[in-house]
Design brief:
Helix content: 40-55%
Number of helices: 8
Protein name: 3-oxoacyl-ACP reductase
Organism: Lampropedia cohaerens
Pfam family, one: adh_short_C2
Distance between the termini: 28 Å
Low-confidence stretches: none
Family: Belongs to the short-chain dehydrogenases/reductases (SDR) family.
Shape: globular
CATH architecture of the largest domain: 3-Layer(aba) Sandwich
Strand content: 5-15%
Largest sheet: 7 strands, parallel
Mean pLDDT: 95
Strand order of the largest sheet: 3-2-1-4-5-6-7
CATH topology of the largest domain: Rossmann fold
Number of strands: 7
Length: 267
Amino acid sequence: MDLGIQGRWALVCASSAGLGLGCARALVREGVHVVINGRNAARLQEAVQQLQPLAAVSGAKVLAVVADVTTDAGRTALFEVAGGPGHAFDILVNNAGGPPPGDFREWDDAIWQQALQANMLTPIALIKAVIDGMAERGFGRIVNITSGAVKAPIDVLGLSNGARSGLTGFVAGLARSGVAARGVTINNLLPGKFDTDRLRQTQRAQAAKSGQSLEAFAAAQARAIPAGRFGNADEFGAACAFLCSQHAGYITGQNWLLDGGQYPGTF
């Protein structure tokens, strides 16, 4: 299927690895010019090297910005990168590393502020920076990578549960505020258990709490998923690319759960 987005510009945050990189790969395959981002220069350069062969085939441009998007300076760097579109992005994929797991009794105000800044306030700031231009041009796709924990909270991920749920509520209102009639959609992707560094960090905390080894705990988790395995970044990226496509203009304000069927509810 031709997604109809060749030549458009996308900003994909936290895309040096994991699900963010999976989204960038899928968009580059479609001929979308991408600005990728990460805080680790070496890791970001590795991501560029992975994307360049795909870009050579599709005609896409790949620009990389070493920056912390949770800061004003970091966000400014994304919009001012040489050769980029400025604020005129057609696609925004919001992503950020999740806050650490733990016991809420140990979290002070500073830790809560960090979680809210990374997983709620920064995505909102980036949306604010691009949404009016998207509406003026008549096309925009905003996808927020949140977490399956928004729908089925995990006890040790209280910081993530709280911050990402706040973003979800904000997006639910904004997506229905009139921008959809001007060609701009806003949706959330809720990953379940994907084979990423983040999953392994969470598993270590949960395994320690349960008294099991990491290997035994991870194997039990995989068995509990109806698909019988953890997800991979490329299939997540494919779902993201579809939501960014011209075919997804009638999908907005939605929370897509990608979890291999693990969530047991109907809704």
